[in-house]
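User: Structure please.
Assistant: Input sequence and predicted structure:
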Amino acid sequence: MGSGLVTCEKCDRMYADTFGRCPHCSFGSPGSSPTSGFLFLSGTALALLVLVGVGVTSCSSYLGTRHQEEMAKLDADIKATVAENERQAKFMNVTVDEYMKAKAASGRAYASCKVGAEARAKYDYKADWIPSYIWTVKDKVISVVGHDLRMQNGFGVFGSVTYFCDYSMVSDRVTSVLINQD
């Protein structure tokens, strides 16, 4: 057992003789050759390089697998979206191209139809926070049915209404609005 301090032969710093190696420069125990510290360092460096190499390889392998999984999921999502668009187009009895154009314009059609319905309120109206509507398309006309308005009657009571609206994709305008008190 060691009982004191020793001076490192390489860096001339003091350390406890119980360490066996200099904690400052990693040089071996007193009396060891100057190359033993180098061998320790080069062995440590080699081990670190191997670990880093294995880690990078494992990481890139993991990332490659993860990328492939993400790409497969994205591909499946695209195929599902295409299938849904084809199904909706068939349901509406239009081509997929007509359906996609109408789908792109449906938000504009809804907003225009809602404004058109609000303009027909005799007294006051209140809009729900969450839009509630369905739409279909035929001959470049989007038909919107909305359920997100309440209109005031002559007694000051608000009641829900359903509005039916046609929006022309050609003229980019509302062509008709019909309001039905629920």
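The domain at 96-181 is CATH 3.10.450 (Nuclear Transport Factor 2; Chain: A,).
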